[in-house]
Specification:
Distance between the termini: 27 Å
Strand order of the largest sheet: 4-3-6-1-2-5
Number of domains: 3
CATH architecture of the largest domain: Orthogonal Bundle
Order of helices and strands: HHHHHHEEEEEHEEHEHEHEHE
Mean pLDDT: 85
CATH superfamily of the largest domain: Globins
Helix content: 25-40%
Largest sheet: 6 strands, antiparallel
Number of strands: 11
Shape: globular
CATH topology of the largest domain: Globin-like
Strand content: 15-25%
């Protein structure tokens, strides 16, 4: 079988406003194999690597998490196959994100062949000529959307950046602040996150929020918490030293400030989730805004509020900023909700997924419109996608959430 990369006449299928007729067949296939998804994805990767051994180098040594992510992304696509705008954005992010792994357009046909081979083997009761044709058409569109997004970004941006550690400051026994210097300008916005690979764990990438607004000197700051099962986070906190070189993928995330409005900000940061919140405060200050900004900063105990002094210095400098430290059993969302109502505010949440989920509900009850609540956890995890290591969202632990990769993690 030739790789499913085109529509047969040299054109490429595109998402339309009408629900694609193949959606039912694609979803039925995934429903059939869902109970044995581990077996299906294991067979998929076995086919892919046997037929294309050179592709093995793009993947981490341990494939258990990768198998979960593959099936999760397939489910996401299948469930939204009739939602063109969502898929264009979702697949575009995946395509752009795959550049850092070394994925090229020529790799996609091999992935498609292995995927169809695995589905044909394990979806036997529902697999027929019509179903196979539906998957070929769907994968054609999926792959070409990702390829196009990667090619467009590649015209203006490198696939990855080298970042030298220039400072490493322990703040608590398991939290460190790292300052990085990249080999080329890093074009991020305050509130966004980066993906990062260390020399100690090749091909294992993790997401970390950037803890400052863009600086004139081009330096980047990360807040990292070492978690018990976090290979990357523990290396960054306990092993990294000035002079070490990391690799960064492109910036991503939509938890940014809209400077076209003067709406006040309500920010909740739990643990190292305070990193992007601090960046947002700096961003407001640099734009000369005078809008009200309330920051609720939570942790289990006072020693864990490792960045409180810096936030209080900002509060003394900017009269529009109010900082509210929260510790103990009461909980960060509850404290923020009780201080409301917050009608008319733009809200930003960053922290453990449970905190974010709870926070979304509390803030809606405190008068914040749902469309004005921003966070970078996948939608279904906030109550409104992928497993996580400790639970730090994308801000500073070993998060595996955003985005869920389909080819290589």
């Amino acid at each position: 079988m030739d790789g499913p990369t085109g529509a047969g006449d040299g054109t490429v299928a595109r998402w339309t406003a009408e629900p694609p007729p193949d959606a039912v067949l694609v979803r039925r296939t995934l429903d059939e194999v869902a109970p044995i998804s581990d077996t299906v994805t294991s067979y998929f990767y076995a086919l892919l690597f046997v037929r294309n051994p050179d592709l093995r180098a793009l993947f981490p040594a341990a494939m258990d998490v990768q198998r979960d992510l593959l099936f999760a992304s397939l489910l996401t696509v299948a469930e939204r196959l009739d939602d063109g705008p969502f898929l264009t954005g979702y697949l575009g992010r995946l395509g752009r994100g795959h550049r850092k792994y070394g994925v090229e357009a020529a790799h996609y046909p091999a992935v498609g062949e292995a995927l169809l081979g695995a589905l044909a083997r394990y979806a036997g009761r529902v697999w027929d000529g019509k179903t196979e044709a539906a998957w070929v058409r769907a994968y054609t569109t999926i792959s070409q959307t990702m390829i196009d997004a990667a090619a467009e970004e590649g015209r203006n941006s490198p696939a990855r950046w080298l970042a030298e550690v220039v400072a490493h400051e322990p703040r608590t026994p398991d939290v460190a602040v790292l300052t990085l210097r990249t080999d080329a300008p890093y074009p991020f916005l305050a509130g966004q996150y980066t993906t990062l690979e260390t020399p100690w764990w090749p091909r294992i990438w993790r997401h970390y929020s950037l803890a400052s607004a863009p600086r004139p000197d081009g330096l980047l700051t990360l807040h990292v918490k070492a978690v018990p099962a976090g290979w990357v986070s523990r290396a960054l906190v306990h092993r990294a030293r000035p002079g070490d070189v990391l690799r960064l993928g492109p910036p991503a995330g939509s938890m940014t400030v809209d400077h076209a409005t003067d709406a006040g900000l309500l920010c909740l940061g739990g643990g190292t989730g305070i990193a992007p919140i601090r960046a947002l405060v700096e961003d407001v200050a640099e734009h000369g805004d005078r809008r009200r900004v309330d920051v609720f900063y939570g942790a289990r105990g006072e020693p864990d509020l490792y960045d409180l002094d810096a936030l209080l210095r900002l509060q003394r400098t900017f009269p529009w900023l109010s900082v509210h430290p929260v510790t103990g059993a009461r909980g960060l969302p509850a404290a923020a909700g009780a201080a409301g109502p917050w009608t008319g505010r733009d809200a930003y949440l960053s922290g453990p997924p449970g905190m974010v989920r709870q926070g979304v509900g509390v803030l809606r009850g405190a008068g914040v419109s749902p469309e004005r609540i921003r966070h970078d956890l996948p939608a279904e995890r906030a109550g409104a996608e992928g497993p996580s290591a400790e639970v730090g969202g994308v801000h500073g632990a070993d998060a595996l959430d955003v985005p869920v990769e389909i080819v290589a993690q």
